[in-house]
Amino acid sequence: MIGSLLDLKILLLISLTIPGLVGIAYGHTIDAVGDYRLEIGWMNEPVVSGETNGIELYVSPLVPCPEIAESIKCAESQPFQNGVPNLDKTLKMQLVLKDQKITLPLKEDHNIPGKYYAFVNPTVSGFYQANVLGTIEETKVSLSMHPPKVNEREYIEFPESSDLTLNQLIDGHTALLGDVNDLKDSVSKLEQSSSQNNLGYAGIGLGIAAIAIAGAALAKSKR
After folding, report:
1. Whole-prediction pTM value?
2. What percent of the chain has a predicted confidence (pLDDT) above 90?
3. Do 45 and 134 fall within a single domain?
């Protein structure tokens, strides 16, 4: 029982040390064609040159907005919902940068109807134009959209290599696990030498110590 509770504490401590890895905000562009709402954005952001990435395309019915005259404003006012499936054979995406272009096939998401991917490796930074071409059911589509800018790799490496930052994170986690193992050894010793009541009070003290360790790790991760 004590061992399983301790393992749970370890998992909680580890999860507290990586708050910066979640909650990333994504920039998407939204437009409308006929009775359909289209939304695009990069799969991985911030997007940098020289890394394999892809553009996500979401297609869904456009819910009428009697109070909004512009179709694009109407599309921006509503979320993606009730996606239109099976468009990977009738739609394609043309990616353009200055005088260069490439036509990319679309791959449909297996779990989200109406969501598609166009995989690409943007080799240089800049503002790319994504042309959505083909048909959505009976509606012809020839729409130009603009995903967020592709940044140079140095955008995420300056002033130090991202590998160094990763190593620092790993070192911090290793030190934390050392502290947790010390707590585990303390519990094992208490199991052998303490009475049931004393063990309960000692467990409370160890719990407080674990919270202190997690707080210190959280502060380090924010720095």
Report:
1. 0.60
2. 54
3. yes
